Task: structure prediction
Amino acid sequence: MCACSVNAASSPSDNGAQPSRYEPTALEGRWQSHWRSVGLDATDENSSKPAFYALSMFPYPSGSLHMGHVRNYVITDVIARVQRMRGHAVLHPMGWDAFGLPAENAAIERNVDPGDWTDHNISQMRAQLDKLGLSIDWDREQATCHGDYYRWTQWLFLELFDGGLAYRKNATVNWDPIDQTVLANEQVDADGRSWRSGALVEQRQLNQWFLRITDYAQALLDDLDKLQGWPERVRTMQANWIGRSEGAEITFQVKESTDQTTTDQRITVFTTRPDTLAGASYVVLAPEHALVDGLTTSEQADAVRLFRQEVGRLSAIERTSDDRPKRGVPIGTHVTNPLNGETLPIWIADYVLAEYGTGAVMGVPAHDQRDIQFARTNALPIQQVIDGDGAREAIANGNAWTEAGTLVNSGSFDGTPSTEAKASITEHGESAGWARSKVTYRLRDWLISRQRYWGCPIPIVHCPDCGAVAVPRDQLPVELPRGIDLSGKGGSPLGQKSDWVNVPCPNCGKPAKRETDTMDTFMCSSWYYLRFADPHNNALPFSKEAINRWLPVKQYVGGIEHAILHLLYARFFTKALKDRGLIDVDEPFEQLLTQGMVQGVTYRNPETGKYVAPVDVSDPENPRDPSTGAPLDVLFEKMSKSKYNGVDPAAVIDRYGADTARMFILFKAPPEKDLEWDDADVEGQFRFLQRLWRLVDAASVKLNTMDPIDRGVNLSDADGGVRRALHLAIEAISEDLNGEIQLNTAISELMKLSNAINAADIHALHPAVLQEALSGLIRLLAPFAPHLAEEFWSRLGGTGSVHQQPWPELDPTALVLDSVELVIQVKGKVRGKLQVPANADKTELEQLALASDVAKKWLNGAAPKRVIVVPGKLVNLVP
Ligand code: ANZ
Ligand code: ZN
Result:
């Protein structure tokens, strides 16, 4: 349906009677169904207007909307509405990130089907969202758990598979021995236990699916520079996560041959400090390193075996955390330092990770804090090789000297500045064949396998002859079978369904088995913003034309918790799909706004750490624990059930209406900052809207007969004051909506404007001025309080919907405090007039005249020969 057919004449409030009370609930319901029936929020696909894509991070359908959601979607909605009024075709969609563990757990607990449970939650949340008056195009809604969406998630997986970007490998992963499943790092708590079963998580070697995000490490890092519309903090977090390190790989020759190995053996380490090579006093392998078995002597075999078992119980976070003692054992063999020929022992230690660099390091205790701790615990030598002010003392006190300095104890490199020595030692090693410069990234390939049911099936068939074979595209989606027993333990739930698992190989036809792992749900959310551009495409996930029309997302709004995960994955997907030729954009989100948390007041007993429900607190000024009488701490914290500080959006909307809820949320804090919920401030916004109601109720103007403000008419001081207030508001609010979005100050400007109009006697104002002021006020209000603004617009007889009106335009002359009319002559003939500040001096008047339309028209860009200025009266331009 075309949005431009909206006709205010059929509007629901047009019933002649003038109720004088503001009753938000009824009013909002009426406008919401009217907008729905006329398709007001449909995306404008066919106009030549420039595109503006406004997107909120889509929610997980838990079943109930919380204040954090409300804040997120209201911010995006204001932006979408403003951009429509500013002449853009706006895409403002919504969907559901609908796969994932909560549905599976709910299914187990309540014995319901996860699909039914999810669908039920979606309809419940959609109804709650509808009450907020969001200008969402629901025709584009997507749910990642529906076949017509995940068909394309699978299709895109196969694109990555074909491009060599999806692969299977054996990897060390978190394994929960009770639940018999892999866990994501986020599902392992600080003590190394499963968040669900409480079991101590083990490290296991498993064959898992990965995406080769590391191929894009440099591009993901470089292109952060393009994201000037993102918060600096998020860009820094991504850069740190990618973690580019420049250094060198250095190869150490193993001295002895062991029982297992007789051949020539080498250990290659990655270091960012090749300048410290002469100070190496040992070499450490990760306990899982492939060379450990071959290089362990029989005397050390038992100690190595025991140590590896212990390390297997630790998470990577624990292994590298600074406050744990670094532990390790020697494996009995040695290497030669290629720079000075010294013999160094080989150790294994918990702080060296198999997945980073080469999984091996050279220990330089004098210049690395971890190494000095390790050396002191294990009585290894500490040799200073970089000197600087205070270096010797620091090292003697057990503190590594990590600053730059001058090389010592390094043979022919002595005296070289350490910054230079990095390159010169690497070059020396390169020509001798034991070094090469190397860039390493902290970023790991993305593990996407999950041994869970409620996720997108991986569209692969394993054939004993052909290996991993893609399911042909025309057989997608590989449907998630229903009716699976989810309580069972022992691998992926999909493995139970033998009729689903056993299929012929798509390649050779021999008996084969489907992949039974499902995808990490972050896969589903890595491309949903592309589908919204082309939601009904049956032949492809999206067409290039649709992506070119709408992408990149102009304004993305969501929580800071996705600073790395989702935002990095989505950037990777965009780049990979571009390289596959599917799209032309290389960054998905142009501007990012990370909104702050919504916090509620909590009462906490500082001794027990327990929270007390506000209803139990007798005196909120001086709160005490009702059971113990202990004084309570009063804090603002993120709303949550367990802290008794949640505020239910539905209750606020029922009481005050969505417009008040929106105004409060927008007014209370800048979008990026945390917001402290305060009932009194909600009341305050409600009263402001009531004041507006009375103002509009009292004004008997008709907006559909808008009189132009005639320059010739002499306006009163009151008229001038109201015009000035209006145009100051237009200027300030328009400014607040550009670049760094300041919705809270925009609302203060609305308040100032309403006060200014209220302060004037509206019946004494020039009708054209009152019309202009109200038309402007209502249009400025429309993005923030869309229902009330629409009601006002229709009551005052404005044509169409207020939401389809142009954004009010600034008239700079109205800002001038006291203005006079200046006559502009060209060669003595009157060619035009200009409102100018009464106190403008000769030079200012000359400049104003030269910048005027008259000068443009009559001088053809040339400078006049002479300018005659009669202050306060006229300017004569003589060409
Ligand atoms: C010798 C050395 C001397 C180091 C020195 C530092 C200071 P970033 O900057 O994070 O990349 N390292 C290398 N691989 C490792 C692994 N798999 N597990 C644990 N540590 C590892 O850190 C690079 C440094 O971390 C490398 O440089 C190495 O220690 C260590 F005065 O080599 B260095
Ligand atoms: Zn086959």
DSSP finds 27 helices and 33 strands in the chain.
